[in-house]
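Task 17 of the worksheet. Students: predict the tertiary structure of the chain below and write it out as structure tokens. Keep your answer in the requested format; marks are given for formatting as well as content.
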Amino acid sequence: MTANHKWLLLTLVLGTVLMLSAPLGALAQGAGEGCCWWNDRVFYEIFVRSFKDSDGDGIGDLQGLIQQLDYLNDDDDRTKPDLAITGLWLMPVTEAASYHGYDTLDYRQIEQDYGSLDDFRQLIDAAHQRGIAVLIDLVINHSSDQHPWFVASAQGNPEYDDWYVWADQDPGYRGPDGQVVWHERGGRYYYGVFWGGMPDLNYANPAVSEEMIDVARFWLDEVGADGFRIDAVKHLIEDGREQENTPATLDWIETYQDALHEFAPDSLLVGEVWSTSYASADYVGNGIDLVFEFDLATGMLHAARQRNADGVRSLQNRALDLYPPGQYATFLTNHDQTRVMTELRENVDAARVAASALLTGPGVPFIYYGEEIGMTGTKRPGDYLIRTPMQWDATPATAGFTTGEPWHLVNVDLAEVNVALQQDDPDSLLSHYRTLIQLRNEHAALQRGAYIPIDTGSRRVYAFLRQNADETLLVLINFDDDPVVDYGLTLEAGSVSADTAITTLFGTDSPLAAPAIDANGQFSAYQPLPELAPYSTLILQVGS
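Model answer:
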């Protein structure tokens, strides 16, 4: 069979394998009117193993996560302020060979350390009652080499022989990062872009595609998840030495999403495309709803660390040019990267302004667990240190994560960095995150509004408008550790109302000067305050 015939057969299989079935639950149904419900959300990434242990075995679990949902969003304005999170992304929760979960053993079973499918359904119900959407990490590029499919494939079982990518002789070439990608087993060689323990599935085989559609149907239709974070999207299909972002990958993921929409039309697919913005943008609207904006994340961190807004301003403008309005996922760091606070040399003030850039800008924000309290962790020598237990309180050795012995040592700074210490402190990093998330939830202009850049006359100051039909918000962020007086705001594109009333939503109790609006609804050399405080954020409402 030729390659073209294989792709024709694959398209037919993907398009017809599943019949129309029941849609998602009330949460996604209500949010799916118009594009796009996820733009109204702030997501929180959780490594279940490290979030909260409910039974004292030292390993975080689903029941522990359920116990802590009120911290994320208790859906009750009368209680102690919560974080106001409206979406969760759970790192892999399926049965896996390793602690991290990215080498799947069973695509339809919950990791035994975490609980059961009943526990997961209980989590979904509890989250939906609080207005929280739930995404799960779906690892479809590869499985574990201990998965029954691969074991059978390696043994030459005719049913599974073509489920993975095999060669009789070592092709000899290396991977995109210079790594070994061809691994020997039983006299043959199989392709695994990450390492030999995670062999890549073969999507030139329609049976593999059919199975992975059914896996998605199981989690979306039977279990009730709202979507997936698709791991390692850019590696799905290789074309010889071309091993990233191939045309075949883009074709496959688009057909895959079409099949999912047959039974889950409101489901969200977020793609991990760890490439430049130019490569990532190709996926959006072509099988993927959102991709993580890695370049912009680097720009926000650089601005906070180097006290210079030029990079983030440029990269934000690039994102606006490349993506449909708001259709990209913003973040600072994730489970594969050195934590924000470590990147910022444990400078809490710098972490505040980085959070400000994340939570006031366009796109869909994602926050890595513990980021909101300033947890630290470096990626080297291994990923364990960026995935340590959540620091709930100052309890020695456990940080309130467990009543037993934690699966991994808790950070040594737990006495100074924990939720209990920051919960009631209005000046804490946690309070900063909480207030900004609540503001974003309350103002549609921050969620879906247009982004209009403003020239500030200073490399230290980042400013822009977020504007919709109902309101105009002016955001100013001083990334410098010194006050800034030599700045002036100039709006050259877009326009604001001639009503120059200025109202503070966040950042100062001082009286504000109003801009002089010209006949075109623009202004120049505007200073709402004569001096911007170090590492400060202002969010102002312009007009009545």
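Marker's comment: The first strand starts at residue 43 and ends at 46. The longest helix spans residues 206-223.
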